[in-house]
Specification:
Strands 1, 2, 3, 4, 5, 6, 7 and 8 form an eight-stranded antiparallel sheet that branches. The protein has a single domain, classed as Electron Transport, Fmn-binding Protein, Chain A (Pnp Oxidase, Chain A, Roll). The chain is of the alpha+beta class and about 140 residues long. The longest helix is centred in the C-terminal third of the chain and has 14 residues. Helices cover about 30% and strands about 45% of the residues.
Length: about 140
């Protein structure tokens, strides 16, 4: 099941990132990279954004990735993967630059954020994943 989940993360260009602070949830459509070697997801945001504020107050996040665009034409059931983890911001200029470069190589449209001096690299350490295949076939993967 882990391989299926990691394949889905590797094929997907977007996720919905959910954060929460002071009992106010927030959802954001995000480009991301998944590093299979350390089970970590990387994304960009800006200092002072709702995501920055929420993660600083509460680092527990979830991300949703699904296959609706892949299976829409084929009549297959949609699979959805919810990823749970703890977010933090990458420290160190060299480490930040390396991840920004990786993200820009895959997603050139992130250039306006990546070029902003308030750009932050968010790192989510995956703790568990829940795969839903169709409407009721659920599996949980603990890492």
């Amino acid at each position: 099941m882990l391989t299926t989940a990691e394949n889905m993360l590797g094929r997907s260009d977007f996720c919905v990132l959910a954060t929460c602070s002071r009992d106010l949830p927030n959802s954001s459509l995000m480009h991301f990279l998944y590093d299979t070697s350390d089970k970590t997801i990387y994304m960009l945001t800006l200092r002072g954004s709702v995501k920055d504020d929420n993660i600083t107050a509460n680092p527990q996040v979830s991300l949703l990735v699904d296959t609706r665009m892949d299976v829409q034409q084929q009549g297959q059931p949609v699979a959805a993967l919810t990823v749970y983890g703890k977010a933090r911001f990458v420290e160190g200029a060299e480490a930040r630059r390396a991840k920004i470069t990786e993200l820009l190589d895959k997603y050139p449209d992130l250039a306006p954020i990546a070029g902003n001096d308030q750009c932050l690299v968010m790192q989510v350490q995956v703790e568990k994943m829940m795969m839903l295949d169709g409407v009721n076939d659920q599996s949980t993967i603990y890492l």
